[in-house]
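Lab notebook, bench 4. Still working through the backlog of constructs that have no structural model yet. Next entry is a single chain of 213 residues. Request: give me the structure tokens for it.
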Amino acid sequence: MKSRSANLLLRAALGACAGLLALGAHAQSYFGVAIGRAHGSIPSLNTTVLGIPVTAAADKTNETSYKLYGGYQFTPNWGLELGYADLGSGYSSNVTIGGLPGVVTAKADTWYVAATGTLPFRNGFSLLGKIGMASSHVAAADLCLAGTCFSMGSESRSQAMYGVGLEYAFAGKWTARLEYEDYGKLTSDDVWGTGDSGAIKGNSWYLGARYNF
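Model written out:
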């Protein structure tokens, strides 16, 4: 009985070692860069402050976006990725305060960490999916009215994000990637500070390349 138990334990240990070796054989880290277009959706505003009518137009801003990311593939199908995206500095909305026209501008960026799933299918192409958490920051919000600008501060928010994409292994350790990422709400649900005025939402399209170590 002891001999049989010892054999079973030895087989289990060898099986575990084989599994770890197989996992290590497929594991790899990578680093990538990308450029794309970030889309920001800004809510409208129609309220009265101290008897003065205040309105702001809903707007959808398109900005050039840059992204740096790195990750680790535990297997050919599953991995973990960390990234930083500069979503641009031209998010804006036209406002009117007491009949005076003005504009609010801001910039945004985000950090994210996500689990990734990769499905290779043929000729070096793979489908990519990711889901995780994003920590977004909207900063340098300024209100310019009648030639004078006022700071409206900044705001941060963390929430779930997701992404989908297509990868192509084209040269040695290089892989091209086309992807879409949705960061959800970049701010609270009351970005204008009037009691549930809505949030700024953000998403991006990227084209980039990664190097596999």
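Notes after review: The two ends are 48 Å apart (CA to CA). The chain has one domain: 29-212. Flag for follow-up if needed.
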